[in-house]
Amino acid sequence: MKNSPLIDLQNVSKVYHTGHQQVHAVAEFTTTFDPGEFTVLAGPSGSGKTTLLNLIGCLDKASEGRILIEGGDIAQRSSRELAVFRLHRIGFIFQSYNLIPVLSAAENAEFTLMLQGVSPAQRRAKVLEILNQLGLEGLADRRPGDLSGGQQQRVAIARAIAADPAVVLADEPTANLDSETANDLLDLMERLNQEHQVTFIFSSHDQRVIDKARRVVTLRDGHLVSDSASN
Question: How confident is the model at residue 56 (pLDDT cuts 50, 70, 90)?
Fold first, then answer.
């Protein structure tokens, strides 16, 4: 018998009001995502990819429809409950990295664990192990400004996976990286997915990401236009 989906989107729409106009960023979107997926939301700029990722990540609320994560309807949670849920169950990787400039690589990677109340010794030990696995051995004490773009993105990945979230959401993770660095990071995330069962959902129009994903969900003007396994 098939297990319940990790994420269940049921007829989800998101409408933004700008002046007298309504913009349907996501329109009547229905699909599910299972644990262990390595999936990309594809489509041109303005297709609704980032909006959908924000809805799944509980950063925005749907105008219509239901979003269930791990069986729970997120619309039934208060803002405080959603903040706690994001902290413990959702990891984020942003195209601008969103690292804190005055903190070291290790301190940035520890940040979610610190908010969760994990002891300093425990979180440092865990983060150092993860940074080493991500090829950042010896760079734990460097601040973001002393790291390359690819190294900063690896720190962002470490921060996203350190708390063992149910899903990692990555918004255009290769946008600011050269081809070699982007390919290395995609290989790294694929390895985390295969070896550690980390669930990844990307938003991207980068063909490198689309080629690497095992499932491609394509949007256009907020609508789901195709959903297929790519390899």
Answer: very high
